[in-house]
Write a structure and sequence with these properties.
2 domains; Glutaredoxin; alpha/beta; single chain; five-stranded mixed sheet
Length: 194
């Protein structure tokens, strides 16, 4: 009985203390603090899900030409986040090249042709260019801001590990995520107009 009474008194004391803190002007958040928290939350991008519109990406390619994801509207596009220093990315690149060559001229239910939009998380331009050449990444759309993990496209897409991929239909809608190897090939086969 004494234990129940002690627990009851403790619960009342905690509740009273919390209630006092919530109403105490010295412990409540100021408007400035609330504004700062709201701004920080606004800078975080929500996780992109299947069915969401893919945010546009526009950055320079290795030659300095601006490349935009939205310029590929009408095609099925694999947005591929990778880097020259990422061993799993480099291991996956031959599969992406094979799939690109197999499907680039095919017709799909919601897109004509298949393309790859590569987003590099590299820090040095030369390492990025060397990896593109060595791995035979023959498509035109390679972009990077050379900011490593502070990459703006990676932030926009909430990418925190690579390789990371987003498959986008001809209307710019995300239809699959993180497809690799045979899974990418099978998905594209299923989307083809036969």
């Amino acid at each position: 009985m004494k234990i129940k009474a002690a627990l009851f008194i403790t619960a009342i004391a905690i509740t009273a203390a919390l209630g006092w803190n919530a109403n105490n002007p010295e412990t409540t958040e100021t408007t400035e603090t609330k504004t700062t928290i709201a701004a920080a939350n606004a800078n975080q991008i929500a996780v992109l899900n299947i069915g969401d519109k893919a945010p546009d990406i526009e950055f320079q390619d290795p030659t300095g030409k601006m490349r935009k994801l939205s310029d590929l509207k009408g095609k099925v596009v694999l947005i591929d986040f990778w880097a020259s220093w990422c061993r799993p990315c480099r291991i996956e690149n031959p599969n992406v090249v094979k799939t690109y060559n197999q499907f680039k001229d095919k017709r799909f239910k919601n897109g004509k042709g298949f393309d790859v939009f590569s987003v590099s998380l590299d820090q040095t331009k030369q390492a990025w260019i060397n990896a593109i050449e060595k791995d035979g990444l023959v498509w035109e759309n390679h972009v990077s801001d050379l900011k490593y993990w502070k990459s703006e496209p990676a932030r926009m897409y909430n990418v925190n590990a690579i390789p990371a991929t987003f498959l986008v239909d001809g209307k710019g809608i995300i239809i699959a995520k993180n497809l690799k190897g045979k899974a990418l090939e099978n998905t594209l086969s299923g989307l083809q107009v036969k």
